[in-house]
Design a protein that fits this description.
heterodimer, A: 434 residues, alpha/beta, Rossmann fold, Ubiquitin-like (UB roll), de novo design (two linked rop proteins), 4-stranded mixed β-sheet, 12% strand, globular, B: alpha+beta, Arc Repressor Mutant, subunit A, Glutaredoxin, 2 domains, 8 helices, binds flavin mononucleotide, binds FE2/S2 (inorganic) cluster
Chain lengths: 434, 202
């Protein structure tokens, strides 16, 4: 299957409307608006097997089918999740900075499918270039009459509201995002009610990731059967995999789901930087945790990684080279999650802080074997006891460090303790923040 | 990049704390609530615009934002404290943010922080006495594929090294008289440089 997500990624400037239309953009959306029903769009997306790229991998067509079908008393909304904050993830940014109309066409079709006349595009505050690019692209669509009171000359109204966030990882969680969109603290909401019932501004809402929507035009253009010809049976299509960390050529690579981590790291990203050996890799963003290099041949799809006790997450591989200690990398994450918990549920607020302290102990050479029991208790005591799954996220790197690198953690701690005893100094350099 | 209508680092009033938003900003702010089904939706955009203009948010800014969307000042304060990008104290003309998360850290972000410390004498949370630079460590910027990343007012400088950071700081200092233009020019050059580095590869 030819690439359909990343065709413009090597451009110096964004693909704006005139050139985009010359390449056939908006022909599919126009056909959808003029000739299809919302049910037909939802069915095609359902049949394609498209699953959400924001990390949870929920089937997109099924999510859309939960939206009200009868004209209700008020509006439904599409909310686009462009908060991209999972460490190791930088794919949505490529789409928005290089190919804004790919996303916008997906938004038009998605809005049509769920009978929404307003779409809110929530973009993280730091993505100023992406924001300005999208603002320009949306203005182009308004001028062309594609957005407005008669989208594509049909009776449908359509508008897209760009909304900037202000720096908070948790706002990527869909209900936190909705609160943030409403001008509140970005605290996740208890579910149910789910967004399809009570979403943005109290109305039925579908929250979809940027890359998810970028898949939609190709599915409607070429059909579900075409889409299913790539990827795995349960997770069809292409994914924008990221490879970052210590590799020769880091970047974003469009490949079928089920491609192995080895192919991504060795063939596409040029292998470990400087010909070093690999200590560990993270398969799909910070919350998926560490895997040892002997798992490199695992196919990168949700089911295969679940069997390994982890997740595909966002598909952002991060390579940790030999010479970097797992405990120091784990501390980068524990500090991150401690900083980013929204704090409304005590198991998460306290658990993320305690686990950061424990990892800090190992880092300073003060790790004890009973700390593994403590870490396990913290993780068990916080998972599934909170409003959102944030504890599952911080348990990813912690649990996997203990599972795969227990001896390593103890050995490094003991070595640092001995070095301290020898020198009387406490300087380990890397990422030690008390 | 066309930063249409967005105030940059250099457009801040010299007498920041006392100044009230100019008329054109006020009318832009007043137009925001109608974009949302409920006026409160405009709270973050209003705060962001105010901060882009002043460089930080004062209690008066928060009261104003609250009035514009019909929310109590205390409620606005609770929102402001939730989000890391909102600042309640002045920072430097060029607020440096160095990503400390995994991909940047593996690629030497600590050396970038050290370079800033050596060159400017400031650490995270500090501002130079001349008010030109401040430094902060930030979390993942979505630039992991071009690590390590340093941002200034959300302009990304990617694939940085101690050498490039030193050159950048010197350039910003020399052009501080017109901070916004200097930042924009430096940013454009850095983006072009990154493209050249990437195009050369297989
Ligand atoms: C802590 C946390 C952070 C998240 N961050 C993001 C994010 O940055 N971007 C995103 O699209 N989804 C993120 N998600 C997933 C969303 O909650 C949601 O599943 C997704 O936006 C749905 O879109 P999709 O079905 O197209 O994947 C996050 C979830 C959690 C629990
Ligand atoms: S880790 Fe620094 S940008 Fe992602």
């Amino acid at each position: 299957m030819e690439n359909y997500l990343s065709t413009e990624f090597r451009r110096a400037t964004p693909l704006f409307l005139e050139e985009a239309r010359a390449k056939g953009r908006y022909r599919t959306a126009q056909r959808v608006f003029e000739t299809l029903t919302p049910e037909q769009v939802v069915d095609e997306v359902k049949n394609s097997g498209l699953r959400g790229r924001g990390g949870a991998w929920f089937p997109t067509g099924i999510k859309w089918s939960f939206m009200p079908k009868e004209p209700l008393k008020g509006p439904s909304y599409l909310v686009i999740n462009a908060d991209e904050g999972e460490p190791g993830t930088f794919k949505d940014r490529q789409i928005m900075e290089k190919d804004p109309h790919l996303l916008l066409e997906g938004i038009l079709i998605g809005s049509f499918a769920i009978r929404a006349e307003t779409a809110f595009l929530y973009i993280r505050g730091e993505y100023k270039l992406a924001h300005d690019t999208l603002a320009q692209a949306i203005a182009e669509l308004e001028a062309a009459g594609i957005l407005g009171d008669a989208a594509f000359g049909t009776k449908r109204k359509m508008r897209i509201v760009l909304h900037r966030g202000a720096g908070a990882y948790i706002c990527g969680e869909e209900t936190a995002l909705l609160n943030s969109l409403e001008g509140r603290r970005g605290e996740p909401r208890p579910k149910p009610p789910f967004p399809a019932v009570w979403g943005a501004f109290g109305r039925p809402t579908s929250v979809n990731n940027v890359e998810t929507l970028a898949n939609v035009p190709a599915i409607l253009e070429k059909g579900a059967a075409w889409y299913k010809s790539a990827g795995t049976a349960q997770a069809p299509g292409h994914l924008l995999f990221g490879v970052s960390g210590a590799v020769e050529r880091p970047g974003c690579f469009e490949l079928p789901l089920g491609t192995t981590a080895r192919e991504l790291v060795e063939r596409w990203a040029g292998g470990v930087k400087g010909g070093r050996r690999m200590k560990a890799f993270i398969p799909g963003g910070a919350s998926t945790g560490f895997l040892p290099p002997d798992r490199l041949d695992v196919p990168m799809d949700p089911e295969s990684l679940r069997k390994e006790g982890t997740m595909l997450g966002t598909g952002g591989i991060i390579v940790i080279p030999e010479g970097v200690e797992i405990v120091d990398a784990a501390r980068v994450f524990s500090r991150f999650f401690r900083h980013e918990t929204c704090g409304q549920c005590s198991p998460c607020r306290e658990g993320s802080a305690w686990s950061d302290q424990v990892v800090g102990r190992f880092q300073r050479g003060e790790g004890r074997t009973e700390d593994f029991v403590l870490l396990d208790a913290i993780m068990r005591g916080s998972k599934q006891r909170t409003i959102c799954v944030f504890p599952e996220a911080f348990a990813g790197p912690l649990g996997s460090a203990v599972k795969h690198f227990k001896d390593d953690l103890m050995a490094v701690s003991a070595r640092r303790a001995a070095a301290d005893a020898g020198s009387g100094a406490a300087a380990h350099g890397t990422a030690s923040h008390g | 990049m066309s930063a249409a209508g967005q105030a940059g680092a250099g457009d801040r009033p010299a007498t920041a704390p006392a100044a009230a938003p100019p008329d054109d900003l006020m009318s832009a702010l007043r137009a925001l609530p109608s974009r949302y089904p409920q006026a409160r939706g405009a709270l973050l955009p209003i705060l962001t615009r105010l901060q882009e203009w002043r460089g930080h948010l004062t209690p008066a800014d928060m009261r104003l934002a609250g009035e514009l969307v019909g929310v109590a000042a205390a409620d606005v304060f609770s929102v402001v404290t939730f989000y890391t990008m909102y600042r309640q104290r002045p920072v430097g003309r060029f607020p440096l943010g160095v990503c400390r998360n995994i991909a940047c850290w593996v690629n030497g972000s600590e050396q970038l922080v050290a370079t800033v410390r050596e060159t400017l004498g400031i650490g995270p949370g500090e501002t130079t006495p001349d008010g030109l630079f401040s430094l902060e460590e930030v979390e993942c910027l979505g630039s992991c594929g071009s690590a390590p990343c340093l941002e200034i007012d959300s302009c990304y400088f990617e694939q940085q090294s101690p050498v490039s950071v030193k050159a950048l700081l010197a350039r910003l200092k020399a052009g501080a008289g017109d901070a916004a233009a200097t930042l924009a020019a430096a940013h454009a050059d850095a983006a072009a440089e990154l493209r050249r580095a990437r195009d050369g590869r297989p």
